[in-house]
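Subject: two folds for Thursday's group meeting

Dear M.,

Sorry for the delay on this. The cluster queue was jammed most of the week, so I only got both jobs back this morning. I'm pasting them in the order they finished. Each block is the input sequence followed by the predicted structure tokens. Could you check whether the formatting survives your parser before we put anything on slides? The first protein is the one we discussed after the seminar.
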Amino acid sequence: MIDRSSLFQPSTSLILIAEDAPDIADILCAYLARSGFRTAHAADGAQAIALHQSLKPDLVLLDVQMPRHDGWQVLSEIRHRGDTPVIMLTALDQDMDKLVGLRMGADDYVAKPFNAAEVVARVQAVLRRAGQVRSREARPLQAGPFRVDLESREVAIQIDGAVHVPELTATEFNLLACFVRSPRRVFSRAELLLGCLPEGHTLERTVDSHISKLRKKLESLGLQGMPLGVRSLGYRLGLEP
């Protein structure tokens, strides 16, 4: 359900509350509205995915235990689409659950029962951080011969004074952008699978296939052995130190 009265305030951030308990959703809507936010409410996971697609909210408050797709599934879909900030709301107060959420790309984690005023403060803090990150990432990523423009999703590679613009698939672009962002880091197949491949891909060996195709395209330009496989660990960009 959308709080339509608040949608006439275009200057305020829109918060999507994905929560199947109406009383909790109502409290969060009231506290957020009191702080000047617009709100929309999804009562299950499927509706959360649909509203995220249609409304493009500035942040999602996401419950884990929901019908028709749980919070983990919704978070995975949101991360596949982009970088919308997500705060997980859940009755699960276990360290492992927090780690899973953060590793899947959640920006913060609040265990129930919670203080609604604290949730609003966390929303404000995450939105501030997200604004700072977006301003930094508006600049292209650069490492070695690679220049990756995240907004236009184009890659330019300078070799011997010539600039090449390879034709990459969406997954190949995601992989290369990941490596260029952290050129010295070794990424596990599980990390690349979760962060770079389309929703529904569940086999880690699928990562190897995409890496192989990306490597062939880079080799055709004269760049050998990139991305570099690191035995028993995963892959890194492979720039010479």
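Second protein, same layout:
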Amino acid sequence: MAWPWRRKSRRKLARIAIEGPIAGPTRERVLKALREVEEREFPALLLRIDSPGGTVGDSQEIHAAIKRLRAKGCRVVASFGNISASGGVYVGVAAEQIVANPGTITGSIGVILRGNNLSKLLERVGISFETVKSGLYKDILSPDRALTGDERELLQGLIDSSYGQFVAAVAEGRGLEEEQVRGFADGRVFSGAQAQELGLVDALGDEDTARRLAARLADLDEEKTLPVTFGKPQKRLANLIPGRALLGRLQEALNLELGWSGQPLWLYRP
């Protein structure tokens, strides 16, 4: 026999928000929230995405968890906010239906990998590296030198493999042919209206439009069923300090450049 709170959950709608870059802390928070939704047997989930994407592995883990939730019978509708690009799209296509605002920035399907070649700067300040390595490619993307031709070819193979995985997931999730997806999956971004024409989203509307759709799919009363939000980020008192939000965004941008340097990313980086 199901616990009483589980029976009540079957008459409610869950909501999880993915905001900002998709990386370690976001992955952990979202995966925990998805487990809670599964354990409490919610019939539907509203997935709000406002993200430029992030790391490949983290995006894939969230995508897989959403598909497992759907396999248990939960109806999942994604709502794209201001931006849902690259890894945000990858996560979104795991949903059954996608709703985007007409002006949502979406797309950017592809992979990017960047390193930092600081060799000229290091030479000017008199800094040089001494490297001992076990293999020819062990120090690939080292900041004290440029890539060799062989290294560039090796990394391109890595990017191509990751890109193929991305295209396959979009094709499967949206019911499109892979060649059809490759026709527009060249890193370009679209508005929500353009994405609908391409088959990337199902309908245009706001988060309430997506909420009503999720309720209908689960045979819930769309007029009365309000979502229960899981996985809210912890609020910190420091965020109330004037200028703290701007400082946080600058720190986030720095982390993208330094912390993710050398990693293949499903990330929109204008």
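Two things I noticed about the second structure. The first strand starts at residue 13 and ends at 19. The domain at 4-111+185-267 is CATH 3.90.226.10 (2-enoyl-CoA Hydratase; Chain A, domain 1).

Cheers,
T.
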